[in-house]
Each structure stands twice: as structure tokens, then as C-alpha cells.
Design a protein that fits this description.
Layout: H1 8-17, H2 26-45, H3 50-61, E1 68-69, E2 75-76, H4 78-90, H5 106-120, H6 124-142, H7 146-151, H8 156-172, H9 177-188, H10 202-222, H11 237-242, H12 275-284, E3 294-301, H13 303-309, H14 319-323, H15 326-334, H16 352-358, E4 361-365, E5 374-380, E6 385-390, H17 403-418, H18 422-430, H19 438-451
Parallel strand pairs: 3-4
Antiparallel strand pairs: 1-2, 3-5, 5-6
Amino acid sequence: MKADLMSNSRVIAQFVADSARRQPPPDVLEAARMCLVDWIGVCTGAQAEKAGHVVRSVASAWAQQGRSTLLLGGQSGAAAAALCNGTLAHCLDFDDTYVKANTHTSAPLWAATLALGEETGATEYEMLCAFITGFEVAARVGWGLGEAVTARGFHATGVFGRLAAAAACAALLKLDADAVQHALGAAATQAGGLTASFGTMSKPFHAGKAAMDGVLSAQLAAAGFKAATELLEPHGGLDSAIIQDKAAAIQPADFSGWEILSNSFKPYAACHLTHPSIDAARTAALELEDIGLIDSVHVRLGALGHQITAGKTGAPASALEGKFDLKYCVALALHGRPLSSLDFTDPLAGDEQVRATAAKVHATADAEMGYTSAEVKLVLRGGDTRTARVPIARGHPGNPMTWADMQAKFEGLVEPTAGTRTREIFERLREFGCGSNRGLATIRMLSAAVQD
């Protein structure tokens, strides 16, 4: 189906409507399962985060009846569950990123897919396929726009994550192409989230609200709601509202490949834009006998990473601030810290040595660097230097995390809750959608363990 034979919005809607007739290849299904395993891991690891509890408390007061699992314990209606679980998924800022759209796609997408999937009685395989559909839609709309959207102050997850969630939910509800267009139109008109909120509870709330709005948009469309149906055209209603200088636009949708295979996963519990610098700092510090020998640290990174993370002080007041503070993250890496979720807990550890090193970090935006690359130069007392350049940070296509890497990350996040059952939980989630339906039972078991 060619985009020039019908509107771009219609091409996208038809792709969603055809979801039930599509059979994704094994590597695509496996990629979706890795997204799920990562999502469950970061949700479970975030169970103590205040943002998740505040949102759950408010949503619980709505007293929505339903059978959708709340990962902090209990059940609710699909919309409330999507809000709560989507927020929880992004609390640690440890969730995956589709770099071409600069979007944390799985956080809102799995939240919406599982919530509505449980409510409608969908099978695990149907949920897996709906998730893939939502991912591919968000990738096509957000392709190449993520940095432009972020640079203009909008959180790309709040923009494209809503479309992902709405597309997946429309697929689960088996909407026809006409109704899908209205679902996507309803989601697009709610798009939002400000980068000025980064470092506060609002950032994970963006993901939760995107998930909730995706559920709501699909349900409204199923009930006959009418929305604008051409908002996803190049220089149309969505992109022209955010990128008003028309420097970038939605591209004609081409679904000939699978963009989920280009997804990225985080080895560090900090803003993804800090990861190349973290990798470079860790490499530069290899065989450095004494961290006190460092006189200054010079980081060269991409313009977007510099804009979002380099203007901080290096002395964050909270764990959330620390995740977006390039100087602090580089200093943690130089001190050999793993930058796991344990390095970003409140009250933030008052390690004066780390803060002293952070004060020595200087960052410069460099046109040679992109989203995945950075260079760190250590200037030592006496004038010696050590330089490390990272072209592709770990976790991105070209330098991906393996299933063994993911298992190590998962166990670190889940073991405090699940104990000796962690390995079994990991293996069951790896089989999600294979016919046993043990994955959903495992997720409900984890929810009960958190509640206990």
C-alpha cells in the first residue's frame, strides 16, 4: 500500500486495522519480549519511588472497577492501571528508548497494552502483536522528529508515546481503519509534556498520562467519538503545532521494515543522553590508579545532550535531578560507580569526592557528536591526558545489550522483591505470547508480592 494513494493518516490507520491479520517474524516478537522484560524490571525496581505511589493513591480514589493489574498491588480499570503503571515504568529513567524519535516507547506502550489487554481478555500473543503495532506507528510518526521536538521544549515520550498507546489499544479493540483514525486523532490532540519538567515527578507522569490517554482515545473511538483524522500528515496538525518553523516534519509512513529492531536499552539508570559520556568516562578512567590525579574533565557531546544535561551544577539536590546532571553522572562513572538505580535514591548520597570530581567537569557541544557518541578527556596533574571516544554507547544498535545483559539488569531490579524466584520470573516473561499464558500470571504474582 503506497502512501501516495491515500493520506498518510489513512496509511497509518490501515496498518493498525490490519494488526490481527499480521504475523510478525520471530526476531520482531523476540524484540517485543525484551521490551516487556525490561519494562517489568524497571517497574519492579521503582516500587519505592514516590511519584508512582502518589499517582496510584490518586487513581485509587477514583475507585475504578476492573481487572487490570496495578504493579503496586491490586486491580483497577484499564485507564487507571495504564496511568499508574506507565508512570511507574519511567520513575527510574531506566527504561528503553527509540532513539530516532527520542521516545521512551515501552513505558506508556506496555502500560496501555497490558491494561486494556487484561480488561478485554486478550491473549498474550494478541497483546504482543498490539504492542508491536503501537511501536511501529510511533516510530513512523516520530522518525527524525524526536530531537526537533525535544529541542523545542516538548517531551517526545508525551507526544509519540500517546500515539503508540492509542494504536496498540485500537488494535486490541479490533477497530477498523475509520475508527483508528479517530483514535489517533484523539491521542494526537492531547500530545504534550514539557522538558522543563525533567528532574521532577512530572517526567514519569508524562509516560503514565500518555498510556492513559491512549486507552481513553481508543475506547472513545470504539464508542463513536469523532476527532480530526488528518493530524499525522507531513506539516499537518501535529508536527506544525510543535515545530512551527517547519524545520522538520512527519515523513510519509513506510511500513516495509521493523523499527522495533532498532530500539535501545539502558545499562545505566540515568537520562539516555548521558550514556555516551558515561561510557567514555569509564573507559578513560581505566588503569587510573588515583582519581585524585584528575585536574579537569572535558566532555564533548551532541547538541541535544548538551542542551538537556550539561547545564546542571554537578551537585544535584535529589536523585531525579542527578539523573539529568551530566557532570554528576560523569563523576559517578569516573569513581567506578555502576550508575544503577541504587546510585539514584533519595536522600542522595552525600559523597563529597564524587561532587568534587563533578565540579571539575566541563562540557562542550560538538557537531561531530550525536545521540550515541561522546568524548571524555582527562587532564591530570602535571599535564598528562587520557582521552576516550565512544562512537556508539552500549545498549544501542551496533553495540546492543544481549539477553545475558538484560538478565543481569533484570535480576538487579527484581531480586529485592522476588528473591529466589527472580530467575524463574525472567524465564517466564521471555516466553510471553508463546502459548502458555504464564506471563500474565507471573505479572500478577509480582503485583501481589509488591502489595505484601
